[in-house]
Amino acid sequence: MEQVKVPSMIETKVTNSLKGSVLDLIQRDYQFIAGDKIQEMFANDLLEVVSKSFRDPWKLEVGQILWYGAKASEKPNYGKNSKKTPLTPVILTLISKDDLEMKKAGYSDKEIMETKIARIFKEAYEQGALLTHSDIAYLLHVSTGTISKQTKAYMERTGEILPTRGIVHDIGRAMTHKGIILKLYKKGYQTPDIARMTNHTQEACDRYIKAYKKVEKLSKTMKNGNHSATFIPNLFFCYIQ
Questions:
Q1: Are the C-beta atoms of residues 37 and 59 closer than 8 Å to each other?
Q2: Contact 217/226 with Cβ under 8 angstroms?
Q3: Confidence band for 229, pLDDT divided at 50, 70 and 90
Q4: pTM of the model
Q5: N or C: which end of the chain has fewer CB within 10 A?
Q6: Domain count, the chain
Q7: Which has the minimum average pLDDT: 13-22, 27-36, 100-109?
Q8: First-to-last CA distance in the chain?
Q9: Does 94 share its domain with 194?
Q10: Using CA of residue 211, residue 212, residue 217, residue 220, what is the dihedral sign?
Q11: Containing domain of residue 136, as a range?
Q12: What's the confidence (pLDDT) of residue 231?
């Protein structure tokens, strides 16, 4: 088959119109971004942001919504407030077929809500983002306190650690994975079962349990009147609570 050359302007309009517009804008008004290679890299990055941020609504499933979460890869640090926290767009399922099936099967509204909350946290995490309790509270039109209580209840009931921003980034008053592992240990679960339930390695679980035993021993020593040992208060209370 004979190959036909497509006019370059037509090809540019079809395959590269937005990128070309961005490059033209940079070269006209942002000349301090010097060098063709740097300008093209900047244009490509900008197009990627636009692509992620603006989704075709017809590509969303019924019951889904576009939302923003904090980037899971960006750890919080001193001076990084909410305005400086990098965000990334995610698609979340507020109403699913599973929700309806649970309703028809006779599950309570509380049980359905717990499952919904867990699903939304995990959907965001799978897309590289982390949500707070406040995020889900606004999305589901309930109080932040309700989300916090039901998240905690779900994790204690199932032993599964949900990837909330508080847990993954270790901020706020969120129940930590360490706390869940120790609760399971106190209930008599063996390390292999704890590791499986919490998606941790057995070595990590053993490390937390050994540390807990040391702190527990220290606590008993202090109760017996020996205050010579030193410790970090936050760590101490984290283990004995």
A1: no
A2: no
A3: very low
A4: 0.62
A5: N
A6: 2
A7: 13-22
A8: 76
A9: no
A10: positive
A11: 63-175
A12: 44
pLDDT at 13: 46
Residue 112: which CATH number? 1.10.472
Structure tokens at 175: 């129940």
- The reply to whether 137 and 202 lie within a common domain is no
User: What is the DSSP code string of the chain?
Assistant: ----PPPHHHHHHHHSHHHHHHHHHHHHH-TTS-SHHHHHHHHHHHHHHHHHH---GGGSPTTEEEEEEEETTS---TT--GGGS-EEEEEEESS-HHHHHHHHTT--HHHHHHHHHHHHHHHHHHTTEEB-HHHHHHHHTS-HHHHHHHHHHHHHHH-PPP-BHHHHTT-TTPPPHHHHHHHHHHTT--HHHHHHHHT--HHHHHHHHHHHHHHHHHHHHHHTT-------HHHHHHHH-
Amino acid at the residue 57: P
**Which residue in this structure is represented by tokens 């965001």?**
124
- Two tokens at 123? 């959907």
Judgement on whether residues 143 and 236 belong to the same structural domain of the protein: no
Within this chain, do residues 168 and 198 fall inside the same structural domain, yes or no? no
